[in-house]
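Ticket #4471: structure export looks truncated?
Reporter: QA, pipeline team
Priority: medium

Steps to reproduce: submit the single chain below to the structure queue and open the exported record.
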Amino acid sequence: MTEALPELVGIACGLLHVFIQHTSASLTINENADPDVPADLERSFSAIAPEDFPYRHTVEGPDDMPAHVKAALLGSSVSIPVRDGRLALGTWQGIYLCEHRDQAHGRTLVLTLQGSDQK
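Actual output as written to the record:
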């Protein structure tokens, strides 16, 4: 994501806000070191919002309403501090774009960077 925002390197102290313009995908910050984490998260959220629950909203397929539930739980934005031209994430943290539909769709992110220039 930082490749899409070359202005980041000029920020001494600031904040990056990332917003996803969709209701069936979400953003979160979580452990990014162990590849089991995304799989475990997906299994956990699928247990919380299973496709076989008797949803009323079913017009867009059986994976659509569970995707809305998962997106509501995780949220549509994250804010990350910026320090010395880099995202100030913790050692094990990464930003996840969570696709909750069975078939991936094109997703659009809005990145807003605020901060003071490096001197």
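Status: closed, not a bug. The export was complete when the record was re-opened. Leaving a note from the reviewer for reference: The longest strand covers residues 11-20.
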